[in-house]
């Protein structure tokens, strides 16, 4: 069965490899599969598979124009010794919940799970489609995507990557990881704005005919490493199926039992992947969408109204400091009944008015989800309580998910086994994590002293990603206004002096 990919805003349709190459549809829409394939393997059989075997089982159902040889090459190249656990994404049980650790890759954040494979998928797709242009990855990041994308694409032949991040909207460690990135084909620029500004400007560049013509004439083409690229989203489905398989294998649940999945959510891609896993047939009862105080998604699930016209708040979970959740468009498209014109109209309202409101009938399509948010105080209290009870340390994004889940369980009495997506190593946010556990231990310490303190508290060795940036030289120092982002790209490509 061939799965093709259709734009959320028109009848434009392409193959999987073409969707990965393009990243964003030419009409501004996102590519979605024309149908969701069934996960028809026996769940006990899945429980016996390695991560690589399960990745092939799931991804081959979606990427149907990739041969078995091509897809296995991509998977085996991505999920290897660069992950510090042979399980790739281990589950840790703590205080009655199961934390799916998605941070065992090179940059110690969940983005590694998909961005380790995207360069392989993209270069394979380019060969399949006879593309001889150099691929220029444009990426906006709220902290983790940028580093993970650069780590994946660094010095990959036929590619270049440009990353934009909000100057004052990421943690110290996140910024150090980006500005010290090696690779002659990498470029990083801080913008004087927030993540939504960066994301909107990147989307605008994708849709700028003059800019695309200019780079095309010089032998380049744009693509994306953000979760708007279906090549990012499909690999994320894998780890939710794998989490379920691990629960079956360990005897925590029986094959066919329901689970809940809680995801700390900003751009909506990570929880959308869990939703797609449910649609494939994974036994999932409830998808709990956890927001921080930038609670645009929590409000949407409660009211049916998406309203980005609100104060943008910087928090200790910066990767979730987002008011425009791009991947929600894929869900909106689905609950319209796959009506691209209606979906396009909602997105136009979001762009022009800053809001849209779905119908009561569409709200029925949200029944699989439960939205919630946690304050900074609730986040820190949950991190501290989990540590004091179990000795297990989580980061501030996982902390949001933990706090929202605990409140959900208390309010509903739902005792369904729950997987919590643990999206980053606590070392990425050492200051906030140490401060949550013990204000006294955090007070007056430098960033690297806080890392030392976290190592003592957690008993978990410092990851190589942290050790590396202690001495790595700064290679990227560009700071730019939002309107000058295209100039940064052109300069990096050596095209800034062209007419």
Describe the structure.
With 499 residues, the chain is an alpha/beta fold. The chain has a domain at 91-108 and 231-461: Rossmann fold (3-Layer(aba) Sandwich). 45% of the residues lie in helices and 15% in strands. It contains 23 helices and 16 strands. The strands form 4 sheets. It has a 6-stranded mixed sheet with strand order 4-5-15-10-11-14. A hairpin with a 2-residue loop joins β4 and β5 (97-101). The longest helix has 20 residues, at 230-249. The chain is globular. The model has no long low-confidence stretch (mean pLDDT 95).
What fold name stands as the CATH topology of the domain at 91-108 and 231-461? Rossmann fold
- Please state the average pLDDT score: 95
Main sheet makeup: 6 strands, mixed
Note the overall shape: globular
Keywords for this entry:
single chain, 499 residues, alpha/beta, 5-stranded parallel beta sheet, 16 strands
Summarize the model shown.
By secondary structure, this protein is an alpha/beta fold.
How would you summarize the topology of this molecule?
Blueprint: E1 5-7, E2 13-14, H1 16-22, E3 31-33, H2 43-47, H3 51-62, H4 68-78, E4 91-94, E5 97-101, H5 111-115, H6 118-128, E6 134-140, H7 145-153, E7 159-166, H8 172-179, E8 186-191, H9 195-206, H10 209-217, E9 220-224, H11 230-249, E10 259-264, H12 269-280, E11 284-291, H13 296-303, E12 305-307, H14 328-335, H15 340-353, E13 355-357, H16 360-363, E14 369-373, H17 376-390, H18 396-412, E15 418-422, H19 430-437, H20 439-442, H21 447-458, H22 464-471, E16 478-480, H23 485-492
Parallel strand pairs: 5-15, 6-7, 6-9, 7-8, 8-16, 10-11, 10-15, 11-14
Antiparallel strand pairs: 1-2, 1-3, 4-5, 12-13
Helix pairs in contact: 1-6, 3-4, 3-11, 4-6, 11-12, 17-18, 17-19, 19-21
């Amino acid at each position: 069965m061939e799965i093709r990919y259709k734009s959320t805003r028109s009848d434009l349709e392409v193959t999987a490899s073409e969707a990965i190459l393009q990243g964003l549809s030419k009409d501004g829409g996102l590519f979605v599969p024309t149908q969701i394939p069934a996960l028809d393997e026996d769940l006990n059989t899945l429980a016996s598979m390695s991560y690589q075997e399960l990745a092939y089982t799931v991804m081959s159902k979606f990427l149907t124009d990739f041969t078995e040889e091509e897809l296995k090459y991509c998977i085996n190249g991505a999920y290897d010794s660069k992950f510090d656990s042979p399980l790739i994404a281990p589950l840790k049980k703590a205080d009655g919940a199961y934390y799916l650790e998605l941070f065992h890759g090179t940059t110690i954040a969940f983005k590694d799970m998909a961005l380790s494979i995207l360069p392989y998928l993209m270069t394979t797709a380019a060969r399949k489609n006879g593309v001889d242009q150099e691929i220029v990855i444009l990426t906006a990041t709220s902290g983790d995507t940028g580093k993970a994308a650069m780590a994946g694409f660094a010095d990959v032949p036929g590619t270049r990557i440009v990353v934009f991040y909000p100057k004052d909207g990421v943690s110290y460690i996140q910024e150090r990881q980006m500005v010290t990135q090696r690779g002659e084909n990498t470029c990083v620029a801080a913008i004087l704005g927030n993540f939504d500004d960066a994301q909107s400007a990147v989307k605008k560049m994708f849709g700028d005919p003059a800019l695309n013509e200019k780079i095309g004439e010089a032998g380049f083409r744009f693509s994306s490493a953000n979760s708007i690229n279906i090549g990012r989203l499909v690999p994320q489905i894998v780890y939710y199926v794998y989490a379920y398989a691990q629960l079956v294998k360990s005897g925590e649940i029986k094959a066919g039992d329901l689970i809940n999945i809680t995801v700390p959510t900003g751009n909506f891609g990570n929880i959308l992947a869990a939703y797609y896993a449910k649609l494939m047939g994974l036994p999932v009862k409830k998808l709990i969408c956890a927001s921080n105080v930038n609670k645009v998604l929590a409000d949407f699930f409660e009211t049916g109204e998406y309203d980005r016209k609100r104060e943008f708040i910087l928090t200790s979970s910066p990767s979730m400091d987002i008011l425009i959740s791009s991947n929600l468009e894929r869900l909106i498209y689905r609950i319209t009944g796959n009506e691209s014109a209606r979906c396009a109209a909602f997105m136009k309202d979001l762009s022009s008015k800053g809001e849209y409101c779905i119908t009561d009938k569409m709200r029925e399509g949200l029944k699989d989800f439960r939205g919630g948010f946690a304050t900074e105080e609730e986040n820190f209290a949950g991190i501290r309580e989990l540590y004091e009870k179990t000795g297990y340390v989580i980061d501030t994004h996982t902390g949001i998910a933990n706090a929202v889940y605990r409140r959900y369980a208390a309010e509903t009495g739902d005792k369904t086994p729950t997987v919590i997506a643990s999206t980053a190593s606590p070392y990425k946010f050492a200051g906030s994590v140490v401060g949550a556990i013990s204000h006294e231990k955090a007070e007056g310490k430098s960033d690297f002293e806080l890392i030392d303190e976290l190592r003592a508290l957690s008993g978990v060795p410092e990851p190589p990603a942290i050790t590396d940036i202690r001495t790595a030289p700064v290679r990227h120092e560009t700071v730019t206004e939002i309107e000058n982002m295209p100039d940064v790209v052109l300069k990096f490509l050596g095209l800034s002096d062209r007419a």
